[in-house]
Specification:
By secondary structure, the chain is α+β, with helices and mostly antiparallel strands. The chain is built from 11 helices and 12 strands. It has 2 domains: 205 residues, no CATH class; 149 residues, Sulfite Oxidase, Chain A, domain 2, CATH 3.90.420.10. Helices cover 40% and strands 14% of the residues. The radius of gyration is 28 Å and the shape is elongated.
Length: 389
């Protein structure tokens, strides 16, 4: 029989990992942070432009520019491209700084606790923004909340947390922004750019470039042949135009399209027009892009009736706004409000034809709206009624 004598040996704490590599140092974190900060800034500014175009506050309604016609195509293309580029940058940034999660003690003071809380909000907000945006462009929504308002609200939380973080780390960022420390002293040899750091940054640049080149073709058509990772491809779809929502998904049936009339109300003269009556109006043509919030966009040739001609025929007061109602059974954008800057623009059409042929059902047959410099969700398909307001 075995016996033990004396007191058991004291427990010892398992030592925490030690990270001494130069790639986990402040200089590497600062170098990556510059790129990531630029990408997030582009996302924030272009995201605000997109949100206000889709959901204009009262003071901005009717004040958006309709030129250049490709304006929204550019801003939303940049938004999605910068968001995709931010994914490898964010992951590299987190890899660089993650050893600080093992710092002991985890909280040293009240200011330190507040700093760590701000960092937690910053990391959580950044992860939610970039990965929910990624799932949005492939139209997969595995969460119970509405994407648009949450994405918009978290953008402000992320911006605030980032500003707090920059303020707290300003001395350290200044010390490692260039080869000299805040303009006062040269960095020590161990903090200068060495082969390891240069290799990491070069590899990260290649990763960002690869992501951009293989996705930007959905907006920047010269890169379309390299559009390997984007969910939409220019020129693929009915009438050489991608489709986000089909007629079947919108609940629009063949019977709806067959027994169709356009009602125009709210003016001096109420109109009820069949398709052949619309075809008897003077027809206009415009080459305009369709640009969607998911980042893809394509130029197309549209033909139809200028909206302002319809408004004149209905006796609408000059400068009237228009509410457009779709045959679509459900969805956030089945009703769309159009300010006078769009409604009276000579390029805004009630389109009947696309790329030389009548609209395909999935592109909004019998009639849809196409206007310059507008998000695709506001280019209403399957138009059934217009209310002059």
């Amino acid at each position: 029989m075995r016996t033990t004598t004396g007191n058991p040996p004291p427990r010892t704490r398992t030592p925490l990992p030690a990270f001494t590599g130069r790639l986990h140092d402040p200089r590497t974190a600062t170098a990556i942070g510059r790129w990531l900060g630029g990408a997030l800034l582009v996302c924030f500014v272009t995201g605000l432009a997109s949100h206000f175009l889709q959901h204009p506050p009262g003071r901005l309604f009717g004040r958006f520019p309709t030129r250049p016609v490709w304006g929204y195509r550019l801003t939303q293309g940049l938004h999605v491209a910068a968001g995709l580029a931010a994914i490898p940058l964010l992951l590299a940034k987190l890899w660089t700084v993650y050893p600080r999660l093992f710092a002991w003690p985890p909280v040293r003071s009240v200011p330190h606790a507040l700093e760590r809380l701000a960092v937690a909000v910053l990391v959580a907000g950044a992860m939610l923004e970039v990965f929910s945006g990624l799932l949005n462009i492939v139209q997969w929504y595995p969460w119970p909340f509405s994407f648009v308002p949450v994405h918009y609200a978290v953008a402000y939380v992320l911006a605030g947390a980032l500003l707090l973080h920059l303020a707290a780390k300003a001395p350290q960022i200044a010390a490692h922004w260039t080869r000299r420390s805040a303009g006062t002293r040269a960095l020590p040899d161990e903090e200068r750019d060495g082969p390891d750091r240069r290799a990491l940054l070069a590899g990260l640049g290649v990763a960002v470039g690869a992501v951009t080149v293989t996705t930007a073709g959905q907006t920047f058509t010269p890169l379309a042949p390299l559009d390997l990772l984007a969910p939409r491809h220019p020129g693929h779809g009915p009438q050489r135009l991608p489709v986000n929502k089909t007629a079947a998904a919108a609940g629009v049936t063949a019977a709806d399209m067959t027994d169709w009339h356009l009602d125009v109300t709210g003016g001096a003269t109420a109109l009820r027009l069949a398709l052949h009556e619309l075809a008897a109006f003077p027809q206009s043509a415009a080459r305009l892009p369709i640009a969607c919030v998911e980042g893809w966009s394509v130029n197309a040739h549209w033909e139809g009736v200028r909206l302002r001609d319809l408004l004149h025929r209905a006796g609408a007061p000059p400068g009237s706004a228009v509410r457009v109602v779709s045959l679509q059974r459900h969805g956030a954008y089945r009703v769309m409000d159009m300010g006078p800057e769009y409604a009276w623009d000579p390029l805004t059409l009630l389109a009947l034809r696309l790329n030389g042929a009548p609209l395909a059902p999935d592109h909004g047959y019998p009639a849809r709206i196409i206007a310059p410099n507008r998000p695709g969700v506001l280019q209403t398909k399957w138009v059934a009624r217009m209310e002059i307001r």
